[in-house]
Amino acid sequence: MKTIDSIVVVGGGTAGWLTAGRLAVEQRQRRPDRSVRVTLVESPNTPIVGVGEGTWPTMRATLKRLGISETDFIRECDATFKQGAKFAKWSENCDNDFYYHPLMIPQGFPTTDLATHWLSNENSVSFSNAVCFQEQLCENGIAPKLISTPEYSSVANYAYHLDAGKFAQYLQKHCTESLGVTHILADVETALNDEEGDIQALVTTQAGQIEGDLFVDCSGFSALLIGKHYRVPFNDCSSVLQIDRALASHVAYPEPDSPIPCHTISTGQSAGWIWDIGLRHRRGVGYVYSSDYISDDQAEHELRKYIGEHKIINEPRRIDIKSGHRDYFWHRNCVAVGLSAGFLEPLEASAIVLVELSANMIAEQLPATRSAMTIVAKRFNTTFQYRWQRIIDFLKLHYLLSKRDEPFWRSMSDPSSVSESLAEQLELWRYQVPCNLDFDSSNEVFPAASYQYVLYGMGFDIDKQNHRRSMLSRDHAEQEYQRNAQITQQALAKLPSHRELINKIHDYGMQAI
Amino acid sequence: MSNIVSLNFDKHSQLRVQASQRHSSAINQHLMPVVPAEFGRASSCFPIIVTKNADTGEFTFSAMMGFQPGENLFVREGRWDADYEPLQIQRQPFFVGDDQDSKVVCFDSDSLALSDDDGEPLFNAQSQASDYLLTVQQILTQLLSGEIESQKLVSELVELKLLTPFRLDIEFTDRSKQAVQGAYMIDENKLAELDDQVVLRLYRSGVIGLMHNLQTSMHQLPNLIARKNRMLDTAKSWFESA
Predict the structure, then answer these.
(1) Helix, strand counts (H, E) of chain A
(2) What is the bridge-based pairing of β-strands A282-289 and A272-278?
(3) Does A507 touch chain B (CB under 8 A)?
């Protein structure tokens, strides 16, 4: 019986190192008696894409599991805290149009349903401000924790912004020095199959043949194994999500001690949106757009207009995006993780979280033998087909509710480009708020609360007449709103500014406990 | 309020300290920093807990004198009521300040422990530092080196993961409840799991002894609770008799 003793990861970007590290840790803990080798093969000639700078809160558990100190990670990767996303000019193209998608669930959720109550009132307070304190922290540049809060613990839920290039280097160092991952610098020319059709070995230019039992394709957009070698079909999603280009640049802060925003700022433009991410020493700013509606030159013009007077450190670099994913991700003894599996667009930072979810599932379910792998592969494919679809729906939702009138936005909000599952949910949500029952699969990616923030942030039109009435007494609801207001005041008074906390972490570090 | 002045014979030859009032600055302090050199003596009077410096997040050692900010249960009717006075109180109202590149002894001229006519003189008839001032200078030196010893001990404990958070939920006799959180103590299980080699090294360097002090100091917790209850009872009888 053929056992799985050697795992070969192809690609040395964020996906490659995260997956290699996760697999190495799991194998070590689960089978200390059996040494499963993890090898990462990286091309010395292909630079990593290195644009993904936003994570989900899941990254905290991922890093902790890899045995990484949060202090080291923040220091080495120029990382900062992220408490959600601010969507400006997505609903209408005017200056006071914005809403937040914070990382904390609404006050009392899910036992107390404030959303229905909020909808039934004429509201002067935005949904996210009424039910969550995080928008206020973000608007005031406040950190999600104190210097005395232990590593990976929080006062307010958080994810990270990070320098993707430094992150890959940091992970490489950790994986090779602490987790026993073997690092080989070599260009993969081709893969050799055995008589069954499994990959037996990679043929490399510099390191000869590299054999393995499981191959993880983290080779980025080039998709060396899942695409070039196995030709697994690519499911093109560009009719639903039309972004196909990115212009990425780095921008300086006006002063070394300028405030650092504690959230991703996403601002609608004529044919897409601009991301704005604050790291310790610089901002990452980029425009993602659809080339059907704007030329590269015009896009660059819009990007420069957004950047304004601020100094550009790295001139805009163009990256082509092909929105879509593989029909399936695990084929024979090869599984694709990261951009090789697919990419939609940077909205809601779904790229890195999919890497984490994939690495988790492979690590947790990796069978001991080749014969059981086929079953795991089948499950993996079902799970991730579902997840990709849910992510596509959730991203689409952001555009669908826009009232902007430029051709790009009209086309993106055209009901004919909406999946059946999303159309059904939207119909339902005209009469009731998104609740956990709408998302009962164990494979959900975005929780019901996220849909609430986007729907009511975008000003979703409900059927007022027939919408479900709130079951909450006025007193109960009032209590919850008061509680949220109280927490907001306490948090604003107690927590330091984001910049101050980042500086302190560099000066003193955080304690593990 | 405090008013910082550097000590100078010409100006302060007549100044005296009332040792019995040294604790006056501590009446509202529930956590009193202590250094390893005094762990032994302090542990016979107070629980010594590990807490985090609010500004830096770094671990520090403190004698616990109350359950909440503003409460010092060892000051009773204006008097210091414990067999041991931590160095941080003994030094009062003096401290070490920086004067350009050198260290100088400073004091808080608003301190209630200072007097012009009563208490220990700071200078003798020969215009030299009095025995009392010499002792204060020794204490200040001890505190300075104690800071470094504290840091060494902290990094040893952190490195070996020997600290563990603990939480206390106390109900006092008046039914009021108090949670003590943000405090850390020695993790006995981790301590028991240490390699023999490591234990030997820690024993030789004195760390085992200090950890033992920290552990035994926890037996002072019931005494501290009893103190609080006595205080509450006194208050109650006061109001009832009124």
Answers:
(1) 15, 21
(2) antiparallel
(3) yes
Cα separation, A342 vs A220, whole angstroms:
9
Dihedral sign computed on CA atoms, order A68, A351, A58, A482: positive
Cα dihedral sign for A290, A294, A298, A301? negative
Strand partners, B97: B104
Question: What is the C-alpha to C-alpha distance for residues A439 and A403, in angstroms, rounded to an integer?
Answer: 27
Residue ranges of A 117-146 with Cβ closer than 8 A to chain B: 146
Which two tokens mark B16?
A: 């005296």
CB atoms within 10 A of CB B204: 9
pLDDT tens over chain A, length 513 residues: 789 999 999 999 999 999 999 999 998 887 776 678 999 999 998 877 767 689 999 999 999 999 999 999 999 999 999 999 999 999 998 989 999 999 999 998 888 899 999 998 877 899 999 999 999 999 999 999 999 999 999 999 999 999 999 999 999 999 999 999 999 999 999 999 999 999 999 999 999 999 999 999 999 999 999 999 999 999 999 999 999 999 999 999 999 999 999 999 999 999 999 999 999 999 999 999 999 999 999 999 999 999 999 999 999 999 999 999 999 999 999 999 999 999 999 999 999 999 999 999 999 999 889 999 999 999 999 999 999 999 999 999 999 999 999 999 999 999 999 999 999 999 999 999 998 888 878 888 998 999 999 999 999 999 989 999 888 888 899 999 999 999 999 999 999 999 999 999 999 999 999
Structural contact between residues A214 and A8, judged by C-beta atoms closer than 8 angstroms: yes
Q: Give SS3 for A210.
A: strand
Cβ–Cβ below 8 Å for A146 and B57: yes
- Report cis status (omega within 30 of 0) of the bond before A47: no
C-beta of residue A339 within 8 angstroms of C-beta of residue A221: yes
Interface test mutation site (partner B, options A71, A148, A149, max chain B beta carbons within 10 A): A148
Residue recorded with tokens 């849909």: A451
Q: Is A504 on the interface with B (CB under 8 A)?
A: yes
Return the HEC string of A77-94. CCCEEECEEEEECCCCCC
Q: Establish if A475 touches chain B: CB-CB under 8 angstroms.
A: no
**Rounded CA separation A466/A461 (Å):** 12
Rounded CA separation A2/B104 (Å): 76
A493 touches chain B (CB under 8 A): no
Nearest of A458, A443, A453, A372 to residue A413 by alpha carbon: A458
Q: Do A511 and B158 touch (CB under 8 A)?
A: yes
Distance from CA of A479 to the nearest CA of B (A): 24
For residue A239, give the H/E element and its range: none
Residue of A nearest to B154 (CA): A511
Q: What is this structure's pTM?
A: 0.90
* Beta carbons within 10 angstroms of residue B200's beta carbon: 12
Give B145 to chain A, closest Cα distance, Å: 20
Interface of B with A (CB under 8 A): 52-59, 158, 161, 163-165, 182, 184
Phi and psi torsions of A118, nearest 5°: -60, -40
Nearest-by-CA chain A residue for B52: A148
Contact state of A148 with B163 under an 8 Å Cβ cutoff? no
Tell me, rounded to whole angstroms, the distance of Cα B92 from its chain centroid. Answer: 12
Q: Find residue A41's DSSP bridge partners.
A: A10, A184
Is the separation of the CB atoms in A84 and A102 below 8 Å?
yes
